[in-house]
Amino acid sequence: MEQYKREFIDFMLDSNVLKFGDFTLKSGRRSPFFMNAGAYQTGTQLMKLGQYYARAIHDTYGLDFDVLFGPAYKGIPLAVATCIAISDMYGAEIRYCANRKEVKDHGDKGILLGSKLHDDDRVVIIEDVTTSGASMAEVVPIIRAQANVEIVGLMVSLNREEVGLGGEMSALDEIKEKYGFPTHAIVTMSEVVDYLGHPQKDGTQTRKALLDTKTRKAIEDYYRQYGVKNK
Question: What is the set of active-site residues?
Fold first, then answer.
């Protein structure tokens, strides 16, 4: 696993974004872990978050695209922070775009914030985490209704690696199959568990595993029921 992915996992923990315990998700599933991107609140956190997304997008899709689209609401600051990071890190000028939840009928009219979409634009969608694909069912038709664009792919921060609405493949794979564009994450939950579940060497120091036996068993039980790899 690349070093920046290890650093991103530590960053999620330090920012209190990734938590372990007993959580009830919107889907009704009881999960031993939970990710809340709303906990990224400071300027430093958003700057670093944009840098991690920028690195993952660069390594996965390259920079041959025009627009970074962030679905309302959490995707909006993600798109803005990542566009800034791409400009700073790679010198590329990427436009940001987002959707409104309601169409504005005065002033800056329409369904979009930021850049308009034009024919032949290449678009990357950015989101925090996808568990059901419901947000894509809303925003993909909006994007495609604006212009004849190509959706290059979707980037999320964490792939939970659990079955989506269809009950057989992950939500990211369901999106890929339904809409026809690639889907990727900065890290997968398998990488998170592997990294936090084993001691880590840092120079001459060794950090003990951060997941205790009880938590690891709860995660294993959860994936035995909902995990993609067991289907």
Answer: 104, 106
